[in-house]
Design goal:
CATH class of one domain: Mainly Alpha
CATH architecture of one domain: Orthogonal Bundle
CATH topology of one domain: Helix Hairpins
Number of strands: 6
Structural class: alpha/beta
Number of helices: 14
Strand content: 5-15%
Shape: globular
Mean pLDDT: 92
Oligomer: single chain
Largest sheet: 6 strands, parallel
């Protein structure tokens, strides 16, 4: 039996049912959920980040929801520091830490599967890169480090610049395997392409009438730059175009589906590197419960 702290990890493509499964298992096994989403940490970004609601939490404590204002920048390093403290606290109280979310780069860093290099900021290079478009930045990263380019958000200028800064310093963005810090069980929520497309389309249509327009209008009123909107996610970029009358409702849904499908493919590309994931249909809670029970008893 391992003497490492046990951590349950739930992964899967966007809109595949990670949150619902995490809540059900938390209720069954006295757990608390650690949200591994780089955007849900921001207050007032609710609909566009598909943030779990109080009702959906069903009384299960969730960590790293609404922790900073949009004027702040919450980094991967912040998440690793705070996430490890949360795991220690949850375990110390006799609860089961359950990581669930779609920012898998953060998850791997938190668990010790990856290690980020200590590369100091390069103001001169940053100044040069800031003048480039996200398309050109992503193209350059693809040419210099295709592995990182395949998984990074191509619309997030800040992350693209940081990746290129690291590449310039050491030749590539390293995925340095380290000894994992925890005893983990990985569960993956798997859906068919048609099912996933249907769920994404349903989400888009619900946003049309569910307050997303007001959320985007509020962001625009905060004088968010296009670059900052992109950092919050492609949903806000196309949402801004929709709010400003540049997209019809139908065009919004069409672009929402296309962008989410691209995002889902990037997520699954990342997860293909991990052969520890036990893939299952998210509605088959019984199968997940059996896996967790056996793991906890091991």
């Amino acid at each position: 039996m391992s003497d490492k702290q046990k951590v349950l990890v739930i992964v899967g493509a966007t809109a595949s049912g990670k949150t619902g499964l995490a809540v059900e298992l938390a209720k069954q096994f006295d757990g608390e959920v650690i949200s591994a989403d780089s955007r849900q940490v921001y207050r007032k970004l609710n609909i566009g980040t598909a943030k779990v609601t109080k009702e959906e939490m069903q009384g299960v404590p969730h960590h790293f929801i609404d922790v900073v204002d949009i004027s702040d920048v919450y980094t991967a390093a912040d998440f690793v520091r705070d996430g490890r403290a949360a795991i220690a606290d949850i375990t110390a109280r006799g609860k089961l830490p359950i990581i669930a979310g779609g920012t898998f780069f953060y998850v791997d860093l938190l668990l010790g599967r990856l290690s980020m290099p200590e590369v100091a900021p390069n103001p001169t290079l940053r100044g040069k890169l800031e003048k480039m478009s996200t398309e050109d930045l992503h193209a350059e990263l693809r040419e210099r480090d295709s592995a990182r380019a395949a998984t990074i958000d191509p619309n997030n200028k800040r992350r693209l610049i940081r990746a290129l800064e690291i590449v310039a310093a050491i030749g590539h963005v390293p995925a340095i395997p380290t000894e994992e810090l925890y005893d983990t069980l990985w569960l993956g929520t798997e859906r068919s392409k048609d099912d996933l497309r249907e769920r994404i389309t349903k989400r888009a249509n619900s946003w049309l009438h569910g307050g997303f327009k007001d959320e985007v209008a509020w962001l625009l009123a905060q004088d968010c730059t296009p670059e900052r909107l992109a950092e919050f996610g492609f949903e806000y970029t196309i949402g801004a175009a929709w709010v400003q009358g540049e997209l019809t409702n139908e065009q919004f849904v069409e672009q929402f589906l296309a962008k989410n499908w691209q995002y889902a493919k990037r997520q699954l590309t990342w997860l293909q590197k991990n052969d520890e994931v036990n893939w299952l249909q998210p509605d088959t809670v019984g199968a997940a419960q059996k896996l967790v029970t056996n793991w906890l008893e091991d």
